[in-house]
Specification:
Chain lengths: 151, 500
C-alpha cells in the first residue's frame, strides 16, 4: 500500500474510527435525552462521534503527509508475556499464588533472548519464597496461597 | 501568619511516628522500584498502590507521595549510570549524567542530582503551601459550567504541552473519556458498555489501565530490543563535590527550580517539561555550550532540580481543583477516590489534616531522599547489575499480584493483559498513553458537570460562553489550539523537543 504515506497515522486513525463506531453502535439503545435532560446515551454518543471525526482526519491526512514506516519486529515477546500472564490468571485461584508465581516466572523468562532455564528456575523459587514472605505473611493478602488439594 | 499555623498542622500530622514510617517506606520502595531500568513513576506507583489500600487515608497519600519522589530520583540514578531513562523526564539527565559517569564522575553526578532535587523540593513545597489555599478558594466558587470548561482547558493544555501529534493526543483523551464511562451510570442506573459482564458494572479500575498501558506494554517493547547496555557500576565513588563544583552548579539548580516550579503547575507539565526547558536554558546561557552533552555538571543540576520542582508543584492543580495535570497525578486522584476522598477545593477545608500533612510530608520526603540515597547508593548500584532477563519476570509478577489483590478477582488480571496489548499497539502507532489516562480519570467528572451545567441552563449551550470564568477558560483552550496549529510555532515546538 504505497499510497499511504504515513502508516502509523493511518492505522491510528483506523483504530480511532473503530473505537468511535463501537461506542456509537453499542450506545444506540441508551436513551439520548435532550441537552437539558441528558440521558445516559448523550455523552458517550457525542464522544464516539468526535472519535470517528478525529480518526477520519488522521487517516485521510496520512495519504498526504509523509511519516516513518510501521515496524513490528518479533511478535515473540508480546505472545509470551501475554501468555504467561493468562496462565497466571488461570492458575492463581485454583493452584494458589506460589505455584502460579513459579509458572509465571519460568514462562515469561523465555521471552528474553538471553533465556537460561536453570537461572529461570532458581529465580522462580526465590521469587515464590519472596511472594510467600512479603505478600502472604507480610501484607496478609487474602488470596489463595497453596493448591486447592493441599488446603 | 496563616501559612505558618497551617504548616504547623502539617508537621503535627507528618511527624507522627506512623506517618514518618510510611513516608520513609514510600521513599525507599519508590527508589527501589524506580531504579530498575525501564520503569518510570507511573508503573511504580500503580504497582505499589495496593500496599496502601489498608492504610488510613493520610498515611496512604503520604506514602504514595514518597513513592513518587523515590521513583523520580531512582529514575535519575538509572539515567546516569545506565543511560536508560525510566521515564521521559530523565531523558535529559542521560545526556550529561551518563557522560559524567563515563568520565568516572558518576558519584558527583548522583550527588549533584540529589542536592539539586532537595533544594528544588524545598522551594516547591513552600510554593505549594503558599499558593494552594488562595487557588482553592477561587475554585470553591466554580459551578458545573466552570468545572467543565476547566477540564476542557486542562486536557487541551496537557496535550499541547506534550510532544507528538496533536490529533492523536486528543483522540487518546476522548478514548480515555469513553473508557471512563464504562460501568453503571449514576443517574439512570443503566449499565453502559459493560457487555453484561458483572465485573465491569463498577467500571474499570484505573490501576488496571495504568498497569497495562505503562507497565506491561513497556516490558513487551523493551524485550523487542536486544542491544547490550553498559552499566557504570564499579566506578561510583567520590560522592563528595568540591566547593568549586558546587558553586558552578548552584545557579543552574536555582534556575532549574524556578523553571520547573512554574512549568509544573501547568497542565501536562509535571516533571517532564521543566527538565527539557531547563536543559535548553542552561545550554543557551552557558559560556561554552559545546560542553553540553559531554558531561557538563549544569546539564545534570538544572534538569534534575527542574523535574523535582515540577513533580512537586504539579500537586497544586490536583489538590486545589481536583484536576490531574499529568498521569502521575491522575493516579493520585484515583488513590484518593479509593479512600473515598473526592479531590477538589473542599479537601483543604474539610480535611486540613490530610491536606497540610501531605504538603509537609513532601518536604520530609525530600529530606529522606537525600539521607537515604547518598549513603545507600551502593545498594542501588547493585540492583542495577541485575540483568533485565531476571528483572522483568519479577516486575510482571508484582504487577499481576497487585492487580489480582485489588478485588481478589483474576478478571482484572485478564483486563490488564488486554490493556497491555492496547498499550503495545499504541507504542507501535506512536500514540502517547498519558492523555488516555487523564481522560479516563476525568471522564465521569466531565460528564456529570456537563449534565449539571446544561440542566441548570435548561439545555442552553451558550451557558459556557456567557459565564465569564467559563468563557475565559474555553477561550484560552481555543487559543492554545490555534497557536499549536499555526505552522510557525509548530515548527518551533518540534525544534524544542528535538533539541532536548
Amino acid at each position: 500500500m504505497t499510497f499511504i504515506r504515513n502508516p502509523k497515522d493511518f492505522w491510528a486513525g483506523v483504530l480511532f474510527i473503530a473505537f468511535g463506531l463501537a461506542a456509537v453502535i453499542i450506545a444506540r439503545d441508551y436513551a439520548m435525552g435532550t441537552a437539558g435532560r441528558m440521558g445516559p446515551g448523550y455523552f458517550p454518543r457525542g464522544l464516539g462521534i468526535i472519535m470517528i471525526v478525529l480518526g477520519l482526519i488522521l487517516s485521510v491526512r496520512s495519504f498526504k503527509l509523509r511519516g516513518t514506516p510501521l515496524q513490528f519486529g518479533s511478535f515473540k515477546p508480546l505472545l509470551i508475556v501475554l501468555g504467561s500472564i493468562v496462565v497466571f490468571a488461570m492458575a492463581a485461584p485454583k493452584l494458589g499464588l506460589i505455584v502460579s508465581t513459579v509458572l509465571l516466572i519460568v514462562l515469561s523468562s523465555t521471552a528474553s533472548h538471553e533465556f537460561r532455564l536453570k537461572e529461570a528456575l532458581i529465580s522462580s523459587v526465590a521469587l515464590a519464597a519472596f511472594t510467600l514472605a512479603a505478600f502472604v505473611y507480610g501484607l496478609k493478602l487474602q488470596l489463595p496461597t497453596w493448591p486447592w488439594f493441599i488446603q | 501568619m496563616e501559612l505558618i499555623s497551617n504548616l504547623g498542622i502539617g508537621f503535627g500530622v507528618a511527624l507522627t511516628l506512623q506517618n514518618l514510617f510510611y513516608c520513609f517506606g514510600g521513599v525507599l520502595l519508590g527508589t527501589l522500584i524506580g531504579v530498575l531500568p525501564g520503569i518510570g513513576p507511573v508503573p511504580t506507583i500503580a504497582m505499589l498502590l495496593p500496599i496502601t489500600y489498608a492504610l488510613p487515608p493520610v498515611s496512604a497519600l503520604i506514602m504514595l507521595a514518597g513513592i513518587y519522589y523515590g521513583a523520580q530520583y531512582g529514575g535519575s540514578t538509572t539515567a546516569i549510570l545506565v543511560n536508560l531513562p525510566g521515564e521521559a523526564s530523565s531523558v535529559v539527565t542521560c545526556l550529561d549524567g551518563y557522560q559524567m559517569a563515563r568520565q568516572g564522575k558518576a558519584g558527583k553526578a548522583l550527588a549533584i542530582a540529589a542536592i539539586g532535587s532537595f533544594i528544588a523540593g524545598t522551594f516547591a513545597t513552600l510554593l505549594v503551601a503558599a499558593f494552594a489555599p488562595p487557588l482553592a478558594e477561587v475554585a470553591l466558587k466554580f459551578g458545573p459550567a466552570e468545572y467543565f470548561s476547566l477540564m476542557v482547558l486542562g486536557l487541551i493544555a496537557a496535550v499541547v504541552l506534550a510532544s507528538g501529534s496533536l490529533i492523536k493526543a486528543i483522540g487518546m483523551i476522548v478514548l480515555g473519556l469513553l473508557l471512563g464511562i464504562i460501568g453503571t451510570d449514576v443517574n439512570s442506573g443503566l449499565q453502559r458498555y459493560s457487555f453484561g459482564i458483572a465485573e465491569l458494572s463498577d467500571g474499570i479500575g484505573f490501576v488496571v489501565v495504568a498497569m497495562g498501558l505503562f507497565g506491561f506494554a513497556e516490558i513487551i517493547v523493551n524485550l523487542e530490543h536486544t542491544e547490550h547496555r553498559e552499566v557504570f557500576t564499579n566506578k561510583v565513588s567520590g560522592l563528595m563535590l568540591k566547593w568549586s563544583e558546587f558553586k558552578e552548579a548552584l545557579p543552574a539548580i536555582l534556575r532549574g527550580t524556578g523553571i520547573g516550579s512554574v512549568l509544573g503547575i501547568l497542565p501536562g507539565g509535571g516533571a517532564l517539561l521543566g527538565a527539557f526547558a531547563s536543559y535548553t536554558v542552561e545550554k543557551r546561557i552557558a559560556k561554552d555550550p559545546s560542553r553540553f552533552g559531554k558531561g557538563a555538571i549544569q546539564g545534570v543540576a538544572g534538569p534534575e532540580s527542574a523535574n523535582n520542582a515540577g513533580a512537586q508543584t504539579s500537586f497544586i492543580p490536583m489538590l486545589t481543583l481536583g484536576i490531574p495535570p499529568n498521569a502521575v497525578m491522575a493516579l493520585m486522584v484515583g488513590a484518593m477516590t479509593i479512600h473515598s476522598i473526592q479531590p477538589g477545593p473542599q479537601v483543604m477545608t474539610s480535611n486540613p489534616q490530610l491536606f497540610w500533612g501531605l504538603i509537609v510530608s513532601m518536604w520530609i520526603g525530600n529530606v529522606m531522599l537525600v539521607i537515604l540515597n547518598l549513603p545507600m547508593i551502593g545498594i542501588w548500584v547493585k540492583l542495577l547489575q541485575v540483568p533485565y532477563r531476571l528483572l522483568y519476570p519479577a516486575i510482571l509478577l508484582f504487577c499481576c499480584i497487585g492487580v489480582y489483590s485489588i478485588q481478589n478477582n483474576v478478571f482484572d488480571v485478564y483486563l490488564t493483559a488486554l490493556f497491555g496489548v492496547l498499550g503495545w499497539l499504541f507504542v507501535k502507532l506512536e500514540c502517547e498513553p498519558a492523555p488516555l489516562l487523564l481522560g479516563f480519570i476525568l471522564g465521569p467528572m466531565m460528564e456529570e458537570n456537563l449534565r449539571r451545567a446544561l440542566l441548570l441552563s435548561r439545555g442552553d449551550w451558550t451557558v459556557f460562553a456567557t459565564r465569564p470564568i467559563s468563557a475565559v477558560m474555553l477561550g484560552m483552550a481555543a487559543i492554545l489550539l490555534l497557536i499549536i496549529v499555526a505552522p510557525s510555532i509548530r515548527k518551533k515546538r518540534e525544534e524544542a523537543f528535538q533539541e532536548a
